[in-house]
Amino acid sequence: MKVLVVGANGQIGKHLVKQIQDHEDLEARALIRKEEQASYFHDLGAETAIVDLEGEVAAIAKATEGVDAVVFTAGSGPNTGADKTLMIDLDGAVKTMEAAEQAGVKRYVMISSYDTTREAIQSAPESFAPYVVAKHYADEWLRGTNLDHTIIHPGRLTNDEGTGQVAVAPQVDRGDVPREDVARVIVETLANDSTIGKEYQVISGDQSVADAVKAQ
């Protein structure tokens, strides 16, 4: 299976591309914004496609041709304003869904936020609310497509070394999770068609990633 990793130069994305390249049944195509970001992925043996998510759907669709799945890990980041959050986390996400449909790619995995419900929007701090809104509507849009989708809602992300032990369920208590382990959950999600049409929260726990995902 060839996987287009959207937001490959991000912290989850880099872990994910490496793990995909280490998997005997998967190979990655890294979607990046700048040529100078490509060397990391070429060293892993991964393909790259240089596309700006703020650009046209046609450019994203061209980069999507020939893959079997799309994983959206992109994000505007904590140091940008609500405008970039809207352009990347919502509009960029929707454009990758449209691109997948245009390219005839059915499998789509979304890395969302821990809680994107209407209640989460209402209770979010003012500075965080635009991000939750963007993720809420991106998730809603994905649910309304014909894509074979899975939505993953990670807890508070850390850069700790992954343990390979997680808790995965439609609803789990709030908690932390290393980005490396989120990438592992994505890989297992791609490997299990039983996850299609499902969404679940992920935090650190006491079950292996493989077992936790297979139980969904």
From TrEMBL:
Cross-referenced InterPro entries: NAD(P)-bd_dom, NAD(P)-bd_dom_sf
Matches recorded under Gene3D superfamilies: NAD(P)-binding Rossmann-like Domain
Coiled-coil stretches noted in the UniProt entry, renumbered to this chain: none
Residue ranges constituting the NAD(P)-binding domain according to the UniProt record: 7-192
Matches recorded under Pfam families: NAD_binding_10
Protein name: Sugar epimerase
